[in-house]
Design brief:
alpha+beta, 9-stranded mixed sheet, 7-stranded mixed sheet, 12 helices, 16 strands, about 25% strand, globular
């Protein structure tokens, strides 16, 4: 498996994209806020959607279409408006938009998906989007991965793309993707959208299994602020144009690699973030305990401000572990900053180690491991620090 530098959703054979300025938010800023992803041959599709019970109209629309296991040719994506908490009018807007693009493309409207991100509770201006159908279709090009990744951004500071080439005895195939997300990031789907494409020949059921496997240790293992969006969605599209029927295990790992790298980019781009932290909880009594403990640490405001302050205040970590409701004993827990064993059996190893721990905390990337010594289960979660900039971004989000 080889990383294809600078490549995105159009790296696999047959995929093309385009972007446009539709002024969906109505602020006249002139930024690209609408994109189209298209395949010259129909593709199989899999998806994982938010578990938020107040899910957005495009999530409802997508669940229905994906559930029918049909073939698809395109997806329309917009930023600036989530089309969430918009009732029947929001659902009607999804249908109006997909029908418009299908008509321009000369395909069945059930072959067009839609995805949205942005402000919740505002009706989606469908007319602005349908007016861009002809332009977006005319501008489709296989070199437009970057344009697609840019148009789906909201509070993101950077574009997020990743692609891998997988060599087989019969030839090669590509798995690639783009994602957006910087705030309102929490597990069960980690506000974020992800679009994964491949030219491997994979049937729908296997495609869904691969995506479920990949999401479990990627998008569902990140948190910026503990808040789950109404719109979180990850799609996986396979058009089979490489002609390669991949090895199951190899394909699953390729999809997981792309998802993990995109997920890490989301955390690194966390609103106002200055630190990227990997929390590892090892030797927990159960997998659920490991997950619960890791997310408690990754979501704790006290721990996250500790990260920002570059302070090895290990007491905050132990307090969080003890409060999270898992099987643990204070006199049995070890703590590591990177490979530095800082606490053992519930007490500090040596106060003289604090300068070394403080130096580790000054790094941009930090790894902290909690060894519970209760069993053999483990969990790794990625998070970032909390800063004053996070508050500023979200206080001004609608302006």
């Amino acid at each position: 498996m080889e990383h294809i530098k600078g490549a995105g959703v159009c790296a696999p054979l047959g995929f093309s994209a385009s972007s446009a300025v539709a002024d969906i938010k109505g602020n006249g800023r002139g930024r690209k806020d609408m994109a189209l992803l298209y395949s010259e041959v129909p593709f199989n599709a899999a998806a994982v959607f938010t578990s938020n019970k107040f899910c957005a109209a495009p999530v409802i629309h997508g669940r229905e279409l994906i559930g029918k296991k049909g073939k698809f040719s395109a997806i329309v994506v917009n930023s600036g408006n989530a089309n969430a908490c918009t009732g029947e009018k929001g659902l009607a807007a999804c249908g109006e938009i997909t029908k418009s693009f299908a008509s321009e493309l000369g395909i069945d409207e059930r072959a067009v998906l839609i995805s949205s991100t942005g402000v919740i509770g505002v009706q989606l201006p469908a007319g602005k989007m349908t007016a861009k159908a002809a332009e977006l279709i005319d501008e489709l090009d296989s070199s437009n991965s970057n344009e697609f990744a840019e148009a789906i951004m909201t509070t993101d500071a950077v574009k997020k793309e990743y692609a891998v080439l997988v060599e087989t005895q019969n030839g090669a195939y590509v798995v690639a993707g783009a994602a957006k997300g910087a705030g309102m990031i929490a597990p069960s789907m980690a506000t974020m959208l992800g679009f994964i494409t491949t030219d491997a020949a994979v049937k729908t059921d296997a495609l869904q299994e691969a995506l479920n496997y990949a999401v479990a240790d990627s998008f569902n293992c990140i948190t910026v602020d503990g808040d789950m969006s109404t719109n979180d969605t990850v799609f996986l599209f396979a058009n089979g144009m490489s002609g390669i029927i991949p090895n199951r295990e190899e394909f699953f790992e390729a999809v997981k690699t792309v998802c993990v790298e995109l997920a890490k980019m989301i955390v690194r781009d966390g609103e106002g973030a200055t630190k990227f932290c990997t929390f590892k909880v090892v030797n927990a009594a159960t997998e659920e305990d490991a997950k619960k403990c890791a997310f408690a640490l990754a979501n704790s405001p006290l721990v996250k401000t500790m990260l920002h302050g570059e302070d090895p205040n290990w007491g905050r970590i132990f307090a969080t572990v003890g409060a999270c409701g898992i099987a643990c004993r204070q006199d049995n827990v070890d703590l590591y900053f990177e490979d530095l064993k800082y606490a053992t059996n519930g007490v500090i190893v040596d106060y003289a180690l604090e300068p070394k721990a403080a130096a580790i905390m000054k790094k941009k990337d930090i790894e902290i491991t909690v060894d519970l010594k209760e069993g053999s289960a483990s969990k790794t979660v990625y998070t970032c620090d909390f800063t004053k900039e996070y508050i500023s971004i979200n206080a001004d989000y609608r302006s």
